[in-house]
Design brief:
The protein has 448 residues and is of the alpha/beta class. The protein has 14 helices and 17 strands. It folds into 3 domains: 150 residues, NAD(P)-binding Rossmann-like Domain (Rossmann fold, 3-Layer(aba) Sandwich), CATH 3.40.50; 159 residues, Dihydrodipicolinate Reductase, domain 2 (2-Layer Sandwich), CATH 3.30.360.10; 83 residues, 2-Layer Sandwich (Alpha-Beta Plaits). It binds NADP nicotinamide-adenine-dinucleotide phosphate and L-homoserine.
């Protein structure tokens, strides 16, 4: 796809106009709701922006497909490039890397501002797009890319810019929270809960991005980029999805007063060698039921922020679905529209700090381990010895139930915070003990 050549930045006062031409790329779950709002709420939007937001076309693959909300049929087109070239503002809701990346580049290149909800693209190619926008003076806004309707990116970027954010911990994927919640509260099967999430429009086109943790990992990279002012990509996030979460894990968590959530965590930390950096990780995590994140149900999202001076903040709301996500898209569109109409200069990019991504083995976390062991004298001492040998302190230890065979028992241990590397070494060594029949469950614990 040929890119048009760069033109002058959008910094000069805009000529008087009575409408901004809006190109919508994508007319699916979110795109059809954005089209609906642009059409049904046109008068309200015009009042807020100062001129009309005129929907000039909707780029799709199949112009004849039936949509969640049907726009004027003449608006649907397969010529996305022509739509971009004639626009004052582009809203990209196609998803995926290509052609979304080339179309966004095409717009930014000539100073046309872009709103996108495409976290997969931003987590892989964000740096290149932020730089291009900053060079041409265009805006690139993406509030919808993380946690659906919840305003979280602007607070991180703007409201907390006078503070130091140390940690962001979020339930950032509605599909997996919906599945884990149904499994926890209704005993639903993984497959049934996933099918329902897909029917409700929460899941990505390929749901392995949700259940494999990659969608949450993309959001972790974006959250960390805004929280720490340094640029992170998907490959710097350690990712584990929810496909291995078992009924046994759920039972052990519930028995100990916890609930399992897929958390996206970005935190500042210092490696053993003294390097200051950031650790980004996504994995199923035990959270105390009374923790604010423990009560987040269904497809709702929540992002828990810890800042030096503000303390603990929680942002909560609908994290997925057509209309909630379109709300965040339209918030960005109105803000950009106001800026174009006022003719003000584009926002300068926040300077990028040099905070390297550290390996996840440096992360500090608590861990719950459930072991099936021989019910014999000396077993507890040998098990505890492995933890001691690796410098991992045990917070609680409980014999939770008799094992299947008369000679066995189940032990549930919860550790104090320790380095991930030491916890991994403990688990590896436990599997070699004769007295340990099985390591039945290993889950990280946060928020205790
Ligand atoms: P979707 O339902 O799959 O819709 C994608 C739309 O893009 C469809 O209308 C499709 O056309 C069009 N499209 C895809 N590839 C195209 C191509 N090569 N050329 C022209 N049109 C193309 O996706 P969605 O759920 O609305 O998600 C859109 C974006 O928002 C994604 O980046 C997603 O990650 C993000 N997002 C979604 C949610 C959510 O809850 N769904 C929440 C936050 C962010 P056809 O309809 O003709 O196939
Ligand atoms: N598939 C995503 C989710 C959509 O389930 O959260 C919102 O980004």
């Amino acid at each position: 796809m040929a890119e048009p050549t760069a033109s002058a930045a959008q910094t000069a006062p805009a000529p008087a106009r009575d409408a901004l031409r809006v190109a919508l790329l994508g007319g699916g779950t979110v795109g059809s709701q954005a089209a609906r709002i642009l059409t049904e709420d046109a008068a309200v939007l015009a009042d807020r922006v100062g001129v009309r937001l005129e929907l000039t076309g909707i780029a799709v693959r199949d112009t004849a497909a039936v949509r969640d909300w049907q726009a004027d049929p003449s608006l649907y087109t397969t010529d996305a490039e022509a739509l971009v070239d004639g626009a004052d503002l582009v809203i990209e809701l196609m998803g995926g890397i290509e052609p979304a990346r080339s179309l966004i580049r095409r717009a930014l290149q000539v100073g046309t501002s872009v709103v996108t909800g495409n976290k997969a693209l931003l987590a892989e190619h964000g740096e290149e797009l932020y730089r291009l926008a900053s060079e041409t003076g265009a805006q690139l806004s993406f509030e919808a890319a993380v946690a659906g309707a919840i305003p979280i990116l602007r607070p991180l970027r703007d409201s907390l810019s006078g503070d130091t954010v140390n940690r962001v911990m979020g339930i950032a994927n509605g599909t997996t929270n919906f599945i884990l919640d149904r499994m926890d509260t209704e005993g639903a099967s993984f497959a049934d809960a996933l099918a329902e999430a897909q029917r409700l429009g929460y899941a990505e086109a390929d749901p392995t991005a949700d259940v494999g943790g990659f969608d949450a990992a993309a959001k972790a990279a974006i959250l960390a980029t805004l929280a720490f002012g340094s640029s992170y990509t998907l490959d710097q996030v350690s990712v584990e999805g929810i496909t291995e979460v078992t009924a046994e894990d759920n039972a052990a968590a519930a028995d100990a007063g916890y609930v399992i959530k897929l958390l996206a965590i970005a935190e500042r930390d210092t490696a053993r060698d003294g390097t200051a950096g950031a650790i980004l990780r996504v994995h199923p995590t035990l959270i105390p039921r009374e923790h604010p994140l423990g009560s987040v149900r269904g497809a709702y999202n929540a992002v828990f922020v810890e800042a030096e001076n503000a303390g603990q903040l929680m942002f909560y709301g609908p994290g997925a679905g057509g209309a909630p996500t379109a709300s965040a898209v339209m918030g960005d569109a109105v803000a950009i529209g106001q800026r174009i109409v006022r003719g003000g200069p584009a926002r300068l990019r926040t300077p990028v700090a040099a905070l390297p991504a550290l390996d996840v083995s440096e992360a500090r976390t608590s861990c719950m381990v459930v072991l099936r062991v021989a019910d014999q004298p000396g077993v507890l001492r040998r098990v505890a010895g492995v933890f001691e040998e690796h410098g991992v302190s045990i917070e609680t230890l409980r014999q939770v139930q008799g094992a299947d065979d008369a000679a066995g028992a189940s032990l549930r241990l919860i550790t104090h915070r320790a380095r991930q590397r030491d916890l991994d070494d403990v688990v590896a060594e436990l599997t070699t003990l004769d007295a340990v029949h099985e390591v039945a469950s290993v889950l990280r614990v946060e928020g205790n």
